[in-house]
Specification:
The protein is of the alpha/beta class. Helix content is about 35%, strand content about 25%. The chain contains 14 helices and 19 strands. Catalyzes two sequential steps in the biosynthesis of coenzyme A. In the first step cysteine is conjugated to 4'-phosphopantothenate to form 4-phosphopantothenoylcysteine. In the second step the latter compound is decarboxylated to form 4'-phosphopantotheine.
Length: about 400
């Protein structure tokens, strides 16, 4: 369940802070993208550079850090709060616990807690006598009253030299709890209970057994859309052409090769609540197929072509009640004009348009810049394909 998820890892000033580096790596091995925020006290136990190197993101500590423009820092808690699927604070000291219980936001970590729109998991860690104190017990009740999640500390040998309840839970226990929270949050997503069909990657139209017409589509954008739909609670089927990228866990996949095979599979799954046609489908196929390899000396100097089935157009003509159809348009010129024409002619609800001419877009790129067009909407999204896929679907289904 953590694959493709965005997790903020909060680290506070306790001796168990060093274990947070191990937890970060465990989240990453589970497929999550992790950003770290630390309290100033936490940096006395583990350096910022450690978490920055491991996470490959800047670490957020101060609301107004030195040597950084204010415009780039003071709203970071807002952007991170919107970005995350889960916020885990491990370890969470008694001091930070008290601040969260009473809405105090005097550093980047506590400010981000208030701004977060995702579930919050607290792993309180402190000496046993501190944990059992009436004030801490009251604060634990208070944070749970606000529907936050709590993973109680374990018993054992503590940094003070005493034995008691206050140790940070094992990494596997934190992962299991995080999985459980994410799983429950999916059932409340905007696509919960919906069947979503996504197509991705190229098609191949064979001339003979060893030659074909195709395109450089990597399938990254379509796969990102499938992941985003899964995270929003949908039951997802991904129909994909020949691709060399990892496919998301938790998604039913069907591999095809030609446009005709894709059309057959789309027809079989045409009852989906949402169809996302992100595949780069060949518009033409050879007029004839040679069952044997064509020799050079026997080859014609021209190749006859015929059009393949317009799958998005076919879906539009079926016009199933309540179905939402999202098409893709890739152009080299007149991007918006051509995309708007496609939106109308295909009877689609939305078109996601991007240009091959952009520096941050294209078939093989991990990033993309797209224009989302609806009957009354036009908006641009830029970033990684995972970010763009999620933002596009959030825009569409938050507007329903």
């Amino acid at each position: 369940m953590l694959s493709g998820k965005r997790i903020i890892l909060g680290v506070t000033g306790g001796i168990a802070a060093y274990k947070a580096a191990i937890l970060l790596r465990a989240f990453q091995k589970s497929g999550a993208d992790v950003r770290v925020t630390m309290t100033p006290s936490a940096t006395q136990f583990v350096g910022v550079e450690t978490f920055s190197a491991l996470s490959k993101h800047d670490v957020a500590v101060n609301i107004f850090p030195e040597n950084r423009p204010t415009s780039e820092s003071w709203t970071q808690h807002i952007s991170w709060g919107e970005w995350a699927d889960l916020f885990v604070i491990a370890p969470c000291t008694a001091n930070t616990l008290a601040k969260i219980a009473h809405g105090i936001s005097d550093n980047m970590l506590t400010a981000t807690v208030l701004a977060a729109r995702c579930p919050l998991l607290l792993c309180p860690t402190m000496d046993g006598e501190m944990y059992q104190s009436p004030a801490v017990q009251q604060n634990l009740k208070e944070v749970q009253r606000h529907e936050n999640h709590l993973l109680e500390p374990t018993e054992g040998y503590l940094a003070s030299g005493l034995e008691g309840k206050g140790r940070l839970p094992e990494t596997d226990d934190i992962l299991q709890k995080s999985n459980s929270i994410i799983s429950k949050s999916r059932t409340n997503g905007p696509l919960a209970g919906k069947k979503v069909l996504v197509t991705a990657g190229p098609t191949r139209e064979h001339i003979d057994p060893v030659r074909f017409i195709s395109n450089p589509s990597s399938g990254k954008m379509g796969t990102a859309m499938a992941e985003a739909a899964l995270q929003m609670g949908a039951d997802v089927t991904l129909i994909h052409g020949p691709v060399n990228i990892p496919l998301p866990e938790g998604i039913d996949t069907v591999e095809i090769e030609s446009a005709e095979e894709l059309f057959k599979q789309v027809k079989d799954h045409a009852d989906a609540d949402v169809v996302i046609m992100a595949a780069a489908v060949s518009d033409f196929r050879p007029a004839s197929y040679n069952s044997q390899k064509t020799k050079k000396e026997d080859a014609e100097f021209s190749l006859g072509l015929t059009q393949t089935t317009d799958i998005l157009g076919w879906l539009g003509r079926q016009d199933l009640p309540g179905q939402i159809r999202i098409g893709f348009a890739m152009e080299t010129e007149n991007l918006l004009e051509n995309a708007k024409t496609k939106l109308n002619h295909k009877n689609a609800d939305w078109i996601v348009a991007n240009s091959l001419n952009g520096d941050q877009s294209g078939f093989e790129s991990d990033k993309n810049t797209v224009h989302l067009l609806g009957t009354e909407t036009e908006q641009t999204f830029s970033g990684t394909k995972q970010d763009v896929g999620r933002e596009v679907l959030e825009k569409i289904f938050n507007s329903q």
